[in-house]
Amino acid sequence: MHYVISDIHGRIDLFDKMLDKINLQKGDILYVLGDCIDRGGGLEVALKLADLKQKGLVKFIMGNHEVIFIENLKKHR
């Protein structure tokens, strides 16, 4: 199965509920169309997505919130 989600905005509680509901299995792909960070939750969602990506279950496209985060990191190095 293929699933699509966007605008998680750091809401690990809601993201976990969604993951429980769809129950990703080998061969499934969750497409995340950006904005997984910001507005709460720290980086927990991003870390969970990284883990799922390593397992081959996620394809990720950066949204404006990820772009802004990376630009701010560059400025503060």
Structure, explained:
The protein has 77 residues and is α/β, with parallel strands linked by helices. The chain has 3 helices and 3 strands, in the order E-H-E-H-E-H. Strands 1-2-3 form a 3-stranded parallel beta sheet.
Given the helix and strand composition, which structural class is it? alpha/beta
Number of strands: 3
**Sequence of secondary-structure elements:** EHEHEH
Q: Which percent band covers the strand fraction?
A: 5-15%
In DSSP terms (H or I, runs of 4 or more residues), the helix count works out at: 3
Instruction: Determine the fraction of residues in helical runs and give it as a percent range.
Output: 40-55%
- The rounded Rg comes to 13 Å
How would the global form be characterised? Answer: globular
- Quote the average pLDDT: 93
Kindly report how far apart the N and C termini lie.
41 Å
Strand order of the largest sheet: 1-2-3
Low-confidence stretches: none
Major β-sheet profile:
3 strands, parallel
Which descriptors apply to this entry?
three-stranded parallel β-sheet; 77 residues; alpha/beta
Helices and strands in order:
Layout: E1 2-5, H1 12-22, E2 29-32, H2 44-54, E3 58-60, H3 64-75
Parallel strand pairs: 1-2, 2-3
Describe, in short, the structure shown.
By secondary structure, the chain is α/β, with parallel strands linked by helices.
